[in-house]
Structure formats: C-alpha cells, structure tokens
C-alpha cells in the first residue's frame, strides 16, 4: 500500500507521514492471554502546518466481538522529530514561529538521520488522572520504538514509573504494543492493538 504524503506537510514531518489519518480497530489488555480484556480504539494523527503531529487515542472496553460496553480512556499528545529548538521555532506559549519552517528542505531533514539510519523522536502524551509521559525513541521507516524519559504524576495520581511503546505499519495496518511499570511492578505487557486506516 503506497503512502501518500500531503502536499502541505512541513518537510520535518515527512518521516512521520505514514501515521497521518484516522485509525480504528481492536486490542487486548495485558499480554493478550485468553482471560485478557478486550477494547476498541480510535486513533488520529493530524497536523496543522507546524513541525509536529497532534495525537489523540480514545478507547472503550468491548465484548469479545468488538461491541463497545463503556469508555476506557482518552490520551492526547504531540509527536515530533527530536532536535534542539531554534529561534525560528514557536513557543513557549503563544510566541509564534517564523513563517518559513526551520527545516525547509528534504535535504535538511535527511541530515538529521541518526547512526542507525532512522530519526530521533520525542513524544509527549497526557492522560486523565494527572499523568503525562515524555518519550524518546526513534522512527525508522514504518517502525517506531519509544521509551519514557520521564513520567510526571500529580500529587494524587496512581503510581506509574516507566513505559515503552512500539508501533509498526504492517500491510497498511497500524500495530502497537505498550508495556508499563506501575503499582510496584516492573515493566510488563499493558496492552496491544491492531488498527486499520479509516481516512
């Protein structure tokens, strides 16, 4: 399945372009064993001309056939190539970016490849309950590996110390797995899903 790159995409987002769109599908909680719970999920990756993707994932507990039973959770965040921000970048807050992006050409983006042939990536994801994850990792073609650098928790949040996520594009479908260290346990399987593109 060919990947279409939007014509209005800033060059910096081309390595992430295969994520852009709406994805839906089903998953399993935990390690996906026979007694693991089922869920359905809708994920969107969008862009607005700035050098990051906006991410939103909404999930529902489901029965074995995929019928929604009740809401599970929502998470939202931002995905971008990892690099030192420059004067031409926007922020903090409402400080506007220059009209011309900092990385203007495909050649300038290619210069950012790491020693493994991929691109370093930073991802921040916020959850209900006062938890935000900051991930670092890499994107190499249609594969992403992320590891938390920091988990920020509110004073009344549940204990949560670390996580890893992997994403891959397989036959046009988005597969992902999330491992979590929480509630006194070391890193273990938390959830996984198989999503198909809907737009």
From TrEMBL:
Single GO molecular-function term?
Answer: heme binding
Binding of heme b occurs at: 158, 190
- Whether Isomerase counts among this entry's keywords is yes
Sequence motif: GXWXGXG, positions:
21-27
Q: Which enzyme type, at the first EC level?
A: isomerase
Name the coenzymes or cofactors required. heme b
Pathway field: Nitrogen metabolism
Task: Please name the Gene3D superfamilies in this protein's record.
Answer: 2.40.128.20
Q: Which UniProt keywords apply?
A: Heme, Iron, Isomerase, Metal-binding
Q: Pinpoint the THAP4-like heme-binding domain residues.
A: 12-197
Query: What PANTHER family does the record tag this protein with?
Result: PEROXYNITRITE ISOMERASE THAP4, THAP4 PROTEIN
Q: What does this protein do?
A: Heme-binding protein able to scavenge peroxynitrite and to protect free L-tyrosine against peroxynitrite-mediated nitration, by acting as a peroxynitrite isomerase that converts peroxynitrite to nitrate. Therefore, this protein likely plays a role in peroxynitrite sensing and in the detoxification of reactive nitrogen and oxygen species (RNS and ROS, respectively). Is able to bind nitric oxide (NO) in vitro, but may act as a sensor of peroxynitrite levels in vivo.
- What is the recorded name of this protein? Peroxynitrite isomerase
Organism of origin is: Arthrobacter cavernae
Lineage here is: Bacteria, Bacillati, Actinomycetota, Actinomycetes, Micrococcales
């Amino acid at each position: 399945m060919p990947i279409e790159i939007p014509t209005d995409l800033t060059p910096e987002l081309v390595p992430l372009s295969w994520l852009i769109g709406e994805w839906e599908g089903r998953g399993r909680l935990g390690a996906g064993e026979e007694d693991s719970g089922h869920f359905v999920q809708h994920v969107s990756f969008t862009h607005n001309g700035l050098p990051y993707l906006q991410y939103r994932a909404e999930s529902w507990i489901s029965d074995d056939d995929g019928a929604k039973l009740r809401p599970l959770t929502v998470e939202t965040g931002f995905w971008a190539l990892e690099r030192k921000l420059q004067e031409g970048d926007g922020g903090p807050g409402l400080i506007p970016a220059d009209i011309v992006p900092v990385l203007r050409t495909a050649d300038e983006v290619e210069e950012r490849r790491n020693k493994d042939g991929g691109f370093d990536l930073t991802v921040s994801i916020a959850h209900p309950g006062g938890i935000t994850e900051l991930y670092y990792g890499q994107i190499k073609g249609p594969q992403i590996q992320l590891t938390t650098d920091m988990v920020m928790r509110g004073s009344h949040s549940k204990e949560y110390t670390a996580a890893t996520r992997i994403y891959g594009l397989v036959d046009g479908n988005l597969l992902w797995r999330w491992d979590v260290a929480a509630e006194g346990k070391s890193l273990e399987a938390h959830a996984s899903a198989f999503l198909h593109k809907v737009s």
